[in-house]
Amino acid sequence: MEQNDFMKSKQVRDFDEDIKQHHLGPLWHAIPILASKEPNKTVKPYLWKWDLIKEKLEDATEIFTPERGGERRAIYLQNPGLENREPYGWGSTTSTMYVAVQLILPGETAPSHKHTQSALRFIKEGDGAYSIVDGERLFMEEGDFLSTPKGRWHGHSQPGDKPMFWIDVLDIPTIYFLNGSFFDGHPDGIEQPSLPDNYSARKYAGGGQLRPPEDRNSEHTPLGAYKWDQTEKALDSLSDFEPDPYDGYTVEYLSPANGETAHPNISSRVQKLTPGFHSKAHRHTSSTVVHVYQGEGYTVIDNVRYDWGEGDILVIPNWTWHEHVSTSSEDTYLFTVSDLPIMNKFGLQREEVYTENEGHQEVKDVFSPVLQES
Questions:
Q1: Parallel/antiparallel/unpaired status of strands 304-308 and 365-366
Q2: Closest CA to 267 of 245, 251, 283
Q3: pLDDT digit string, tens, across residues 95-132
Q4: How far apart are CA 20 and CA 24, in angstroms?
Q5: 269 pairs with which residues across the strands?
Q6: Which of 316, 296, 266 is CA-nearest to residue 145?
Q7: Would you say 242 and 235 are in contact if contact means Cβ atoms under 8 Å apart?
Q8: Are 312 and 53 in contact (CB under 8 A)?
Q9: How far apart are CA 374 and CA 216, in angstroms?
Q10: What is the tally of helices (H) and strands (E) in the chain?
């Protein structure tokens, strides 16, 4: 909003300086920014290539081991528009979500800890490792989705013979902003099992719609691991019908206890795009991070094309036009997370469809990463 000459005058500037020394602020200048007409563009769209992430994690194995400390060998995806947040950019992939890729090697154990941040994991590559959550060992396979509610002991170990890579998503920036962080390390290092292996997944072998009665009052999801074969089966069944014009075929991970999102602050979904599928563009106030589990294609965000392949991770900021295109000869699967539950809790979710050019944006540029100077 353009200021008139009086608001730029020496009289106004002097008064602004006068109240500043008393830790007071001028709403007459602040309100156009703090109560903006639309969400700001601080969060930047960005695409990280899987080959680069994997290379850097493999390099990290020469430096960081569980015995040397550091809790986890994980590299988080720092949004370039949020690097100035201190400290450590708040670990912000979006304003509200932390996304990282973690690697554990054969024979390694990452110690158990607990914290007020809730976590989820999507298994990208490898097998044989397990995550132990409140005494339950959850053996992980590619495509599995794991939920770790806040305040639960959890650690990881790889007794198998392959490296394992997975995607971690936590609400770290949200909890940091709210100043609600608490953290404890387990006194025994790694927690020991107190339940049968894969206990919760075996309880829910019939799917999340069949619930043992004792779980009906569970505050968080009682299901620790959602297996890929059930996810794929659900998507294949949906494929008998017409796809959503904006998201293709999509399923969302929910808690069988209450039907709400498996993570209280993050919505997690898998989208299936059939060969050649081209979605229409839309935008919404929730921000989204996309991990390409299988397939290849591109996403157009505010007229810029982002080409992606298997393993890549893409940030779609809130209130940006976006559409997906599959260029693969086989089905494409996208694991996506968003802060939709947070937006819903505050009554801020809004969605708008793109009406020009039959719902498709004009591509005016192609993304390439901008590297910082060393």
A1: parallel
A2: 251
A3: 999 999 999 999 999 999 999 999 999 999 999 999 99
A4: 5
A5: 252, 336
A6: 266
A7: no
A8: no
A9: 54
A10: 7, 23
Q: Which helix (H) or strand (E) holds 170?
A: strand 164-170
Q: Partners of 184 in the beta sheet?
A: 114
Tokens 């494929």 belong to which residue?
239
Which pair of tokens denotes residue 349? 């979710």
- The half-sphere exposure of 272 on its side-chain side, counting CA atoms within 13 A, is 20
pTM, two decimals, is 0.94
b/e map of 302-311 (b: 16 or more CB within 10 Å)?
bebebbbbbb
Contacts of 298 (CB under 8 A, 6+ apart): 305, 306, 307, 308, 324, 325, 327
Asked if 247 contacts 270 with a C-beta cutoff of 8 angstroms, the reply is no
Write out the two tokens for 16: 């602004």
304, two tokens: 């810029």
Amino acid at 257: A
Mean pLDDT (10-residue bins), the chain, 374 residues: 82 95 94 90 96 96 80 95 96 98 96 96 97 97 97 96 97 97 95 95 82 87 94 96 98 94 97 98 98 98 98 98 98 98 97 97 94 61
Residue type for position 189: G
Kindly state the tokens that stand for 33. Answer: 């920014």
Beta carbons within 8 Å of 55's beta carbon, 6+ residues apart: none
Q: What's the angle, vertex CA 81, arms to CA 77 and CA 87, rounded to 5?
A: 70
Q: How far apart are CA 185 and CA 172, in angstroms?
A: 17
Place of tokens 């106030």: 285
At residue 200, what is the residue type?
Answer: S
